[in-house]
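Posting for a labmate who doesn't have an account.
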Amino acid sequence: MNKLLTIAERLDAIVDGIGRLAAWLLPVLVVLTVFDVVTRRYFFGSSAAVQEMEWHLHTAIFALCLGYGYLRNAHVRIEILRERMLSRGRAVVELLGCLFLLLPYMAVLIYFGVDFVASSYAMGEGSSSPAGLPHRWVIKGVLLLGIVLMLLAGISTALRQVLVLFASSADLRARAGEGKG
């Protein structure tokens, strides 16, 4: 059972590290947006490449921080029944949600996402705007990476819920994060 916790902690570290790095894209996005607004209003007008870069940064921030938010329990929940449950009941609901909803959905997205990125790369896909950004496969790859990170976060959460439900040691259950999820 300790091995399950070690795996969950390693997965958490990957998702956490990339999520924290991706958060540094926020100041870049703010500066880019201010630049876009100021130049559009006072100087030479709008640039398709700058606007597309803003969209790409929004996508990267969302995708790369999605798993981080899930691990930190910062996602939206509908707490009608869950808040009234004991920790074991919450663990069962979380585990079932991971096993039957989150993990299969992320696996399907990854399955189709690989072809999505590969075909974009193979055809040299770029912006439809002549002044836009080339290499559309890069942002599609970032989106796919975000989905992989969400899958890793789901696996980690599922492992932790298994420990909460089935670990014989109270210490191990507590270390697994009985209150998480």
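Reply:
Got it, the structure tokens are right above this. Residues 2-175 form one domain.
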